[in-house]
Amino acid sequence: MKFMLLIHQGTTPLPGSPEWDALSGEEQGAVYASYQEVNETPGVTPGERMAGPEDAKTVRVEGGKPILVDGPFAEVKEAIGGYLFLDADDLDAAVDLAVKIPAARMGGAIEIRPLL
Predict the structure, then answer these.
(1) Number of independent structural domains in the chain
(2) Residue of 105, 93, 96, 98 lying closest to 83 (CA atoms)
(3) pLDDT tens digits for 44-79?
């Protein structure tokens, strides 16, 4: 089975933020090591970190013409900050991987979606 894991940042400290700077060097290193471990897991295709929803654009088509507006359509408290793909035997393997993603334990959440 193939899964997409969507990383909802929530209140997870991000590099370059005051909250990140408040973490010890050991804590920061552990976050980087966790992401490295996740990305090196067999079956994982790493994604990329995404800019925040404040930088997003939403496109709709009305009357055959594109309309571009700032931001996401719906206000989100847990913006998607990144993603990855996993080719695994079952959902349990996806859950096992999700718990290793730092955002899951630092104020965010991981959404697992099977790919059709």
Answers:
(1) 1
(2) 98
(3) 999 988 887 778 888 889 999 999 888 765 555 667
